[in-house]
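Retro notes (design track)

What went well: tokenization of the new backbones is finally stable.
What didn't: we kept losing track of which sequence belonged to which structure.
Fix going forward: every design gets posted as structure first, then sequence, in one message. First example under the new rule, 281 residues:
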């Protein structure tokens, strides 16, 4: 079926005129379209950045060109710093994501399907949700010191909130007709949860995990600023101390790439379970 715009175009075209061919983005479909759009957007951003840097409005030391940022990345890679930082940050982010997501999904099941969870646990979580995770960093250091445990705890707490909110919403919004049908067929509470509530809520759970993954890479910067000698957050902090804007921006770009790759990996791994609710690019 033709879209409204295509039908309007066919109506306005003079008789005998050839139909227009497909546009660039129309010819490219599926993952290729996403990659092409991403590459085009990044290219435009790079050109705009280069144009601003070339004007000399800002000092080159504070506003490096893309070429300078690339050279800074190559230098850090040659010094064997960048790979070490990436591996350290990814490990902390993944551990925090797994711990926070597991705790959040368990809490969401309790707050959405049990009276005790709704009466006792949900009000506490609603109260704690607005508390900024960054403000908990000093408390985590006091409790667990400046080692790995405090860093993972900070990330897990930041991941917990979006995963719990989305998961609770998904579990609590199961259509009443489905629940009624399950009761009529004699399904137990556990069977209803396993075969109806959880499958119906999976898209919301996955959405929460994807938001939580993004939050994990945001919080890794704060978590790695103390008590470590490796990590993207640590490298950003060091670059700021020594006024190395090229290294700082390079690390921010790497952090963005890591977050995007993690998001797409989660989307790919969960695609079989949420195929009926897959997002349209």
């Amino acid at each position: 079926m033709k879209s409204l715009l295509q039908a309007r175009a066919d109506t306005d075209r003079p008789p005998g005129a050839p139909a227009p061919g497909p546009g660039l983005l129309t010819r490219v479909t599926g993952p290729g379209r996403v990659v092409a759009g991403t590459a085009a957007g990044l290219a435009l951003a790079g050109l705009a950045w280069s144009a601003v840097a070339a004007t000399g409005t800002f000092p080159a030391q504070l506003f490096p060109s893309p070429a300078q940022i690339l050279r800074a990345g190559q230098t850090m890679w040659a010094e064997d710093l960048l790979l070490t930082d990436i591996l350290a940050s990814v490990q902390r982010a993944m551990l925090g994501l797994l711990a926070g997501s597991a705790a959040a999904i368990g809490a969401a099941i309790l707050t959405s399907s049990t009276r005790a969870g709704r009466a006792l646990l949900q009000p506490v979580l609603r109260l704690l949700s607005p508390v900024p995770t960054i403000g908990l960093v000093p408390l985590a250091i006091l409790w667990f010191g400046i080692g790995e445990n405090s860093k993972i705890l900070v990330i897990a707490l930041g991941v917990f909130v979006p995963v719990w909110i989305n998961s609770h919403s998904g579990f609590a919004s199961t259509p009443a007709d489905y629940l009624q049908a399950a009761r009529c067929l004699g399904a137990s509470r556990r069977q209803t949860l396993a075969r109806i509530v959880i499958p119906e809520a999976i898209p919301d759970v996955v959405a929460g995990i994807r938001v939580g993954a993004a939050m994990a890479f945001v919080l890794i910067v704060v978590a790695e600023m103390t008590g470590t000698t490796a990590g993207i957050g640590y490298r950003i902090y060091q670059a700021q101390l020594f006024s190395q804007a090229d290294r700082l921006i390079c690390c921010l770009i790497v952090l963005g790439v890591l977050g995007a790759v993690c998001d797409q990996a989660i989307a790919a791994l969960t695609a079989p379970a949420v195929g009926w609710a897959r997002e349209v690019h």
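Added context from the reviewer: Residues 1-12, 20-28 have pLDDT under 50 and may be disordered.
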